[in-house]
Design a protein that fits this description.
This protein starts with 8 loop residues before the first strand and ends with a helix. It contains 10 helices and 7 strands. The chain is α+β, with helices and mostly antiparallel strands and 236 residues long. Helix 2 (47-54) crosses helix 3, helix 6 (135-161) runs parallel beside helix 8 and helix 8 (183-195) runs parallel beside helix 10. The radius of gyration is 22 Å and the shape is elongated. The protein has a 4-stranded mixed beta sheet. It has 3 domains: 9-94, Arc Repressor Mutant, subunit A, CATH 1.10.10.10; 98-163, no CATH class; 180-236, no CATH class.
């Protein structure tokens, strides 16, 4: 008989969550870390390496015992969450992970292609496992932060070109909220305000950026963004 149950889903963006049969499942911290590690890896990992990453302060023997315990405590949905053998671990082939979709989306945008994914801005603006400070998470968090900022900026320009200024503005604002000193995103917002016929909003955006840049780094905005608002200053 064909299994028609929905696949297990792991959410890493915006916080960890596991859904089985379309319902959220409580996951103990050790199992949560194990599933997150396998979801981030996206390729098989040696059991000894996984144990060392997850329990870095334990002896190898103790870490291996903790790993066996966590595997035993895994939820057992109709489709397996983890495939394991004597040496290797990997996420079950049917498990869906939002971060995998987000990485593919960022790559599509970076390749100057138009994304087909609905809610692209929402997916790209989400933080990866916020509040997690493990070393093996932070490397991915740093990569994702830069990848999604570049993707959001490219997506903003693409949406603007296609006439969707609302989503273009949302994408640029997501960049500014993540990196308030990123001038290219502020410049896009200023240009969008000008295109919408809102010179006062454009000047306010510029002034907010200029003040923050001066207060935090002691720097001034570049001539490129200043030239955008200079014709407006005497009229606002």
């Amino acid at each position: 008989m064909t299994d028609t149950s929905p696949p297990p889903r792991i959410r890493l963006l915006g916080g960890f969550r596991l859904d089985c049969d379309s319902r959220p499942v409580h996951v103990v911290p050790g199992v949560r870390r194990l599933l997150a590690l396998l979801a981030l890896q996206e390729t098989p990992i040696e059991r000894t390496a996984a144990a060392a990453l997850l329990w870095p302060d334990a002896t190898a023997r103790r870490a291996a015992a903790c790993l066996r315990s966590m595997l035993w405590r895994l939820v057992k949905p109709s489709q397996p969450l983890v495939l394991s053998n004597e040496n290797m671990l990997e996420l079950g082939s049917g498990v869906e992970v939002d971060f995998h979709r987000a990485r593919r989306l960022a790559a599509v945008v970076a390749a100057r292609e138009s994304p087909s994914e609905e809610g692209a801005v929402t997916l790209l603006k989400a933080d990866l496992l916020p509040g997690w400070d493990h070393d093996w998470v932070q490397a991915e968090q740093d990569w994702w932060r830069q990848a999604r900022l570049r993707a959001l900026e490219a997506l903003s320009h693409r949406l603007w070109s296609s006439g969707d200024r609302y989503q273009a503005y949302a994408a640029a604002m997501a960049v500014v909220r993540t990196d308030p000193l990123r001038e290219s995103a502020h410049r896009t917002l200023v240009e969008l305000h000008i295109a919408d016929g809102n010179p006062a909003a454009a000047v306010r955006q510029y002034a907010t950026y200029r003040t923050r840049l001066r207060d935090e780094l002691g720097l001034s905005p570049s001539p490129q963004i200043h030239d955008l608002v200079r014709p407006l200053l005497r009229h606002v």
